[in-house]
Amino acid sequence: MHSACPHCKQSFEPEPGFYFGAMFISYAINTALFIGSWVGLLLIYPDYTLSMLLGILTAVVILSLPLSFRLSRSIWLALFVRFDPEAGNTPHS
Ligand SMILES: [Zn+2]
After folding, report:
1. Which residues surround ligand 1, an ion (CB under 5 A)?
2. How far, in Å, is the centroid of ligand 1 from the Cα of 15?
3. SS3 of 11, please?
4. pLDDT digits (tens, 9 = 90+) for 59-93
5. Burial of residue 64 (number of CB atoms within 10 Å: 0-12, 13-18, 19+)
6. Labelling 9: which of 3, 23, 55, 85 has CA 20 to 30 A away?
7. β-bridge partners, 11
8. Residue 49 CA to ligand 1 centre (angstroms)
9. pLDDT at res. 60
């Protein structure tokens, strides 16, 4: 991850431990993925076993980790930093 945006120089690490709260966003994303996977399995194969469910959930978490990690950090940062369409358009940057 860059330490600052290469376009507008917005710091991606505003303070130490800033992304601690992104865990709660990640938790919500993973809960949605779990429920979606479980409902999908229930519809496709209603006679599933617990080990099938755990295997699918493990695969879903591992495969979605690069996306959910970055997405939760992006959402967390967007909660605190307002989008500025003019940032990065000034001649000095
Ligand atoms: Zn930027």
Report:
1. 5, 7-8, 10
2. 17
3. strand
4. 999 999 999 999 999 999 999 988 888 887 766 54
5. middle
6. 23
7. 4
8. 46
9. 95
